[in-house]
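Batch job 17 of 40 flagged for manual review because the log was empty.
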Amino acid sequence: MAFQENIVEFQNVTYEIGGVRILDDLNFAVAKGEILILLGESGCGKTTTLKLINRLIEPTLGQVLVEQRAASDWDKIGLRRHIGYVLQDGGLFPHMTVGQNVGLPLAIKNTSLSDEQRVREMLDLVGLDPAKFSDRFPHELSGGQRQRVGVARALSSDPELLLLDEPFGALDVITRNRLQKEFAGLVRDLGKTAVFVTHDLHEAKLLGTRIALMERGKIVFLGTPDQFASSSAPLARAYLETIGV
């Protein structure tokens, strides 16, 4: 697949807090239509990198570009409404029904889309019958169903960019494998761009067009899953040995 313009770009980005350097001079880009995986162990800087994209935090040095425009030039709220965000367990509001959760970005963004019709379309898209699920509350759903609702909500306002922070990490293995495959096909069919955080190499290889392997706030490998498999980078080899490659 040939990618064109960059949707996200990190230019010499460093992030420090309390004198501790969490990210160290990151330089990478995410092209339109790409699924970039941020892979690494807990504490390596994956989620911090994700938060810089939608300005939940600001870089200490350098700049992040979103759609070829400095993130600092975007209105924070406008930027976050422009991006789909998916967390573990969907990050749903427990007091709102499934339909209300999925339709929330539309209501906030005040789009011209028909909210009810769009909600139905999004639930259908992720394999949930709107007639059956729209009026349910999150506590009435399984973990896999809540995650589907989270993806539907992220897609409802038709964002170009999706940010996903270990969205399938809390699920059982069977449900997780099924949703991983469905998500990969869905994002590619819709032509979305995604930055996906995980510590699971199987997930990274299945979903990613490229993998950015992180260690102590640095990217120590950046390339395709096939290139990862043949990498001589020590941490990459350590990951591959855990799955017997």
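Reviewer: the log was empty due to a logging misconfiguration, but the result itself is present. The chain is about 40% helix and 25% strand. Unflagging and moving on to job 18.
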